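[Meeting: bench + compute handoff]

Bench side (C.D.) handed over the final construct sequence. Compute side (W.E.) agreed to return the predicted structure before the next meeting so the bench team could plan truncations. Sequence as handed over:
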Amino acid sequence: MVSPARTARYVFVALTVTLSVAVTSSCAQESGNNTDVAQQGYQSGDGSITTWSPQERREPVTLTGTDYAGEPVDTSVQQGGIVVLNTWYAACPPCRAEADDLLQVATDRADDGVTLLGINRHDDAGTAQAFEREHSVTWPSINDADGAATATLSGVVPVKAVPTTVILDREGRVAARVLGEVDASTLNGLIDDVLDESA
């Protein structure tokens, strides 16, 4: 027979474990609601896709900055084509996993007027460029250490995870967003939908 004292101890341990799990769960949920992912480290999205019809889209987004080679970047130069924005950093597991798919899209869709642009808040030039060499990245990334590009984008569409991929239509307006890792098939389908609008 279990003594009352031992029973009380079991109950105390069970309550402590339950409380610890509840607190941990609450922190995870709170961090998921924070759009400033750069201060949280790695946070993965669920792959959810949101699209906006042309009538629902807000004003054009213009991102400016400098890439890791020191060259200026300005998305307004690409208006008239489709721009695919992708937030990433080198130590992010899904960023590494999707890199080959992004390269496939960048290569296959260049003749369709599709350009890619990365946004990186985390890495210094050496780390970012090593990732770009490793994955044969052919598109520039804004060195967004000051968070200006991310803030501009977040002002129009929530960017709650890294990676997040956003498609801008020919006018520079947000047409679609993928939270989390994206594959080539999904991205090509979203691009096709935007291209078909102007067909």
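W.E. noted at the follow-up: Residues 83 and 115 are 5 Å apart (CA to CA). C.D. will use this when planning the next construct.
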